[in-house]
Amino acid sequence: FNIWIGIAFAATTCVWVCLSRIYLGMHTFLDIIAGTIYALFLVYLMFPYVDAIDQFQLNFALAPLLNFSIGILLIKFYPSPKQWSTARSDTTVILGSAFGLCSATTTMFKLGLLKKPLTPPIYSIIYPNYLHCLLRTVLGLILIFLTRQIVKNVVLRITCFIYGLDYRNPECKRLAKIEMPYYYLTYFAIGFNISFSCPVFFRAIGIGRDYSYTEI
Length: 216
Description:
This protein has 7 helices and no strands. The chain is mainly α. The chain has one domain. Helix 6 (130-162) runs antiparallel to helix 7. The longest helix is centred in the C-terminal third of the chain and has 33 residues, at 130-162. The protein starts with a helix and ends in a 12-residue tail after the last helix.
């Protein structure tokens, strides 16, 4: 497609997200400007190494453990805010989800469940089975909801028990030593299940989409 359409769409999405953060009072204009410049710099810096990182991610057997550890380190060194806000937990959610997805991809590849397309691009369009789409959506949402409820409750109770706190007290979730593992482990599990458990389950019951790259 026309590259300018893609650039316009990306720019619109970026502005939309940035303005929403300002509207909600989460960040200032300077935060948005600095973050955008930093993101552009990272894209410029990392783009030449995308393929190498992708190959390392798929082929290194300990990549899931490495992903998990890097996420913990990034959270550990997150700047401590002067007053509590959701910014830290939002960052933890993003890191947990992203590293969970990456770890699941490595696991899928190592188990031989992630295969390359049989033909090179450009792919011919295969219209999806809409009943299967509906089933995957409903079952996927149920599985993700169960994952979230189970993991967050288990993690909250264990961490509060370790630190001698009452898990029923909502203020506990604002403590960094509770908040970080609470969000990170919960969304790591969600990200992992989205990219591993759900596809494997769907394939087992015959509603998987092995050729998702050809769907609309």
